[in-house]
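Flavodoxin, pasting as requested.
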Amino acid sequence: MKGNLTMKRIVLLIVIVLLAAIVIKGPDSLIGLAKMSRSASDNGGSLPNVIGKATGVTGKKVLVAYFSWGGNTREVAKLIHSKTGGDLFEIKKETPYPKEYKPTTDVGKQEVEQDARPKLAGPLPDLKQYDVIVLGYPIWWYIEPMPVKTFVEAQDLSGKTILPFATSGGSGIEGSVADLRKTLPKSQVKDGLLANMTGGIDRWLKDNGLVK
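Structure tokens follow.
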């Protein structure tokens, strides 16, 4: 009897959280909740890069660049690109991370501890042409994955606006934004968006002049 009561309380709590998400963020926030509940070992899927169509919907030259391991950040990047226009580019490590979650976290932790700059796969776009780089990644060990640092340090981004967004299993985006500001002191790194729930994306993009 006590076990049934406890289970009912758990179910009620889940319902309250879901309803709160709908009220605060809107129905599409449930997309984010569902995405974060997927297995982190889902390493499949890709999006074709879009290069050569840099002018976004507000006339700014925009690049949505993202690193994704399990697919969550990739889906958010796809959504953001569909709203902003511009170019789209996936940051990929030359030697891919393991497909399993735990080995990947171990490699990621080691790279952070060593302040590593992993080599990236393929040629990078010419970043000098863009006004704004919308930069997406999962939060690993409280900051952005180290391939993202390789990407932003590969070319001179002085004077560029960097607009970070992230997905996370628990950590906020503030630590990675602070880290990016240290890495890119001559760029304008704006406050980021934790995009586990997608309801805030439109307002964030509008506030930063990327949608009308």
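Note for the archive: Strands lie at 62-66, 87-90, 132-138, 161-167, 188-189, 193-194.
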